[in-house]
Specification:
Two copies of one chain form a homodimer. Chain A has about 600 residues and is of the alpha+beta class. Chain A has helices spanning about 5-15, 35-50, 55-60, 75-85, 105-120, 120-140, 140-155, 280-320, 340-370, 375-410, 420-430, 440-450, 455-475, 480-505, 510-515, 515-545, 550-565, 570-580, 590, and strands at about 65, 70, 155-160, 180, 185-195, 205-215, 225-230, 235, 240-245, 245-250, 265-275. The first copy, chain A, is built from 19 helices and eleven strands. Chains A, B: It comes from Hyphobacterium marinum.
């Protein structure tokens, strides 16, 4: 059940696929070097392996408790959080002026993956603080930044994201929490929020709650919503935690997984808060947090899948049953040598690599959108980031569920026994397709907003990039690469065909929504195949130039080829399923169980 | 969280698809009539709805306990079991001479589905007793039949299936439990078995354990294995439970799901037992039990999926969020009207109907294999049963996992909260692809044994039947049916292409094993689509003849069309993935996380 951070796999993705290197030329990251990246990933890997991973199962078994409004996290979490603060991990990707390390978001994303692998329940706390910091940087006043950012960036204070109410989940516009002005610039907020991750806990000395609420006389729906900052303890004149605010946890959920993460029902009874951004500007602020969190949740999918994979791989090498073909030694043979088991492992590995590459490409794009010297390059990167965000979130979390399920399957009966640990990954992974916007909401965002953006530029640009890689594959001297290129070309054609159908002027909204989830799947399948193909091209270059471990480089080609021959081959068949149309959805009567 | 047995859906499948009617002509079921079947399904449905379903969540929360070798099942299980015995449900499909009702297995299978829907953990007990009864009927001595069958068929005594040991799971030939002759025809059995479902419990007055063990001097591997009958209490001269035998539960597993089902580690220390069948004939006896249990586990997949579906459907009608297209009333709208949610529900419904039809067709084939008057018809039915058994088991249990996962997703955040119940279905469902032969083992059975059987007759006959249905669709006056037929024809072509590749003389074993799981998926996808198409043809006939509820009949066509346009459209793309070949499976080096 141990975990070892895949530092070299991540480094390869950052060096060759998501190309962190491109950021160096911006001049905004003077210290950024391969050595530094390697050192940081190695150090973060140690923290994940040695501190967080051992608390994963104990945290699942023990869970959190709520007594008189105080939440106690599982044994060891508080000390692990102190080490997190000490390591400065919360501030990796944030500006040095507020105490951060000023490194790229892509690097912070890579570190987050390791933490999520090691302990998803624990890492949800820091994950939400990341998002709140981004929102404060983008929308907070100078005073708010000065008061809160340094404490959040060290991790001494943590943060939440308070949107959901019992009647307002995907439809946030239905929320009813109310804010009344106090006349001194502060507001008095009253209402109840549910499903608040790390809403209350014993790890940080203060908790800063960004809360969506309605102000008097505002319009109905999302246009009347504002974002408020509500500290658990009101900062005193020196900026230290002072008076206890009227916001508290009144319930903890009993969940299928992530037991170590306290999911709270929060009650505000005239809690004191301040606007973040303008009145009625809550949704824009929320989307800053949400977009950050969506990528981070995608990374959770990668992380939990990697954890499940390492465990399944170790078991498959160790467990001996039956007679495998083409093995000389006497039976029973290690189950990894049974083609069926090896294929499951290959599927897991290929999809993890693809999802990691999608998430890191999304993160690098976010960095480039901010730091590219040229305005057009920044705009291009922003479009790429926005296109990839729903794919990173939904496709990677679906991969998380699929891979953790295969992890259970490879363990056979042992996989269903809680002590083995494989079941926990499967339970933990299942939340990720739901929160921060269900995967259905991601698909609607992709089809409804991202395809239409800038006259369809984001998807056209993606297809152009994919076809460039097809060309790179076709001209390779390695005989595998033109085959990968051929599969990828068909995938790109399918993606284009489906996108064109969806983007056709006058396309009925119900028809495009009917195909949305399948389209997101196709987009993820093809984008993942594209990024693996880039990795294969790089692997071939390394082989040719004698750079690095040839086994590793060959592995990149083998995995890309496997993915191309299994996942990309299925891509063209998705087009019809995307173009289904709402008329083929059965009516209520046909859906009844009778 | 309530459950309502889908009596009419099941009746339709038995009347029009799995065609229970065909059995009537055998003369072996003189009382079999539509009225009787309806009455039995309605009565069993009541038992499932009113007695078993309410104990599902409480059983999950409470679980089982083991104290001094005695297992206590959750509150209410013992009383529910007494009602099971009283209702005579255990004996439905067994001969009247031993106290059964002498009805077809297909009917018993339909009843089992309802029980599994209502309470999967509870129903595992009776399910294993079904299998043991079949093994005793097929392989027991007259004396054993007379002594044990009446008690098992009433359900007063229950049974288990003891195969697995820590070192012998999929590879049963590695088992080490030993049997020594006592010289009086009885044997003394010593060893340990794990993962024994309902191995010990407080519901029945005696437990009959069929146990695989090795006798002295036998050959290694499966050829040296014999099956023993070991009663918990040795029957006295009157056939009542007497002396306590040396077999006991020494541990209970902590599992991800089916908490109400006691999964025991069993220790035999010189337990007294008797051979079932000949010495060294254990594997044949085991397969009688296993094949019965495999179909029954497939039915569990259907049952748990139906339960999850009913709950998700109810939630989707009730929960209102957002603005759905083409709805006149003011938002928020019921989420069932969001195309994305409706599509998930349609996917669930279509796959449940398909899996149910596969399982019931397999069960009816088993009945026909025994009762058809003509020997050739019996042999044909036997081939169909054997071909369908691994598909019924693996495809339906994969559907169980997929559908329960969609059930969680439709509930959004509520789906992850244990009190909702959707999560329990997801946890419970996950065991079914593992036990009674993992789904990988089923795929190996399908590709390695079933395709090769009788010179390939079973798959050829299936394709002939499918193409007959294609023709029936193409000549229909309903415009949907030729479209369904066209998709089905392409599915059949794909299935044939893949089967021919696998069956090609000299095909490398590693290559065919590499494609086994994908082939089973294709076979299930196409067979499911075929049976739904038969249902659509019958629906159209009912519409034309004004028979029954037209909404219901139209629903059969809508669901078949939806399945054809989504699942069958993807079938041709699976062929390449099946023909992948072992060379494309990455080597160990490429699979490492680095």
């Amino acid at each position: 059940m141990s975990y070892r951070a895949p530092v070299n796999d991540i480094l390869f993705t950052l060096d060759e696929i998501a190309v962190l290197d491109g950021l160096k030329k911006s001049g905004d990251f003077p210290d950024l070097s391969t050595d530094l990246v390697t050192a940081i990933l190695t150090e973060a890997g140690k923290y994940a392996n040695e501190v967080l991973a051992p608390l994963n199962r104990s945290g699942d078994v023990q869970g959190c408790t709520l007594t008189d409004g105080e939440v106690t996290t599982p044994d060891g979490f508080k000390a692990a959080y102190a080490q997190f603060v000490e390591g400065g991990w919360q501030g990796l990707q944030f500006p040095e002026e507020f105490g951060g390390m000023g490194l790229p978001k892509a690097l912070g994303t890579a570190v987050l993956e390791m933490m999520q692998s090691a302990n998803m329940a624990f890492s949800l706390g820091p994950m939400l603080t990341f998002s709140a910091i981004e929102a404060l940087i983008a929308h907070g006043s100078d005073e708010q930044k000065a008061l809160y950012l340094p404490k959040l960036i060290t991790g001494e204070w943590s943060s939440t994201m308070q949107l959901t109410e019992p009647g307002a989940g995907s439809d946030v516009g239905l929320l009813r929490t109310k804010a009344e002005p106090n006349g001194d610039g502060s507001w008095s907020i009253t209402g109840q929020k549910i499903f608040i991750t790390w809403g209350e806990h014993d790890c940080a000395e203060n908790i800063i709650h960004p809360v969506l609420a309605r102000t008097p006389g505002g319009p109905d729906g999302v246009k009347g919503i504002s974002l408020f900052l509500i500290p658990k303890f009101l900062p005193d004149a020196e900026g230290n935690p002072g008076e206890r605010n009227a916001i508290k946890a009144i319930g903890l959920e009993h969940k299928m997984g992530i037991h170590g993460s306290p999911t709270c029902t929060m009650e505000m009874s005239g809690a004191k808060g301040w606007l973040i951004g303008p009145e009625f500007g809550g949704i824009a602020c929320m989307f800053t947090m949400m977009n950050s969190a969506r990528l981070a949740v995608g990374v959770q999918g990668v992380g939990i899948a990697e954890r499940a994979y390492q465990q399944a791989l170790a078991y498959a090498k160790d467990r001996r049953q039956g007679r495998a073909p083409d093995i000389d030694e006497p039976a029973p043979h290690a189950i990894i040598d049974h083609p069926d088991v090896r294929r499951m492992l290959a599927t897991m590995k290929a999809k993890i690599e693809a999802a990691r590459a999608i998430c890191l490409h999304c993160a690098t794009s976010a960095d480039e959108a901010e730091h590219e010297p040229d305005a057009e390059d920044r705009a291009f990167a922003k479009r790429r980031e926005e296109l990839l965000t729903p794919i990173a979130k939904a496709w990677s979390t679906d991969v998380g569920v699929e891979v953790t399920s295969l992890g259970v399957q490879i363990h056979g009966g042992m996989g269903f026994i809680e002590e083995t640990g494989a079941a926990q990954h499967y339970r933990d992974a299942r939340i990720a397709p739901i929160y921060e916007g269900t995967n259905g909401i991601q698909a609607i965002d992709l089809v409804g907003r991202k395809l239409a953006m800038a006259g369809g530029a984001p998807i056209r640009e993606l297809l152009t990039d994919i076809r460039q890689t097809v060309e790179d594959c076709q001209t390779s001297s390695n005989p595998d690469l033109p085959e990968i290129g051929a599969r990828l070309a068909k995938g790109a054609d399918a993606l284009e065909k489906a996108a064109k159908w969806l983007m056709k002027p006058g396309r009925d909204r119900a028809d495009s929504l009917t195909g949305a989830t399948e389209f997101l799947k196709l987009a993820g399948d093809v984008t993942g195949g594209w990024l693996l193909a880039i990795g294969a091209v790089a692997g071939q270059r390394r082989l040719k130039e004698g750079e690095g471990d040839p086994d590793f480089a060959e592995g990149r080609i083998d995995i890309a080829r496997f993915y191309a021959e299994t996942t990309l081959t299925a891509a063209p068949a998705l087009v019809d399923s995307i173009r289904l149309g709402a008329d083929f959805l059965p009516e209520d009567e046909a859906l009844e169980s009778r």
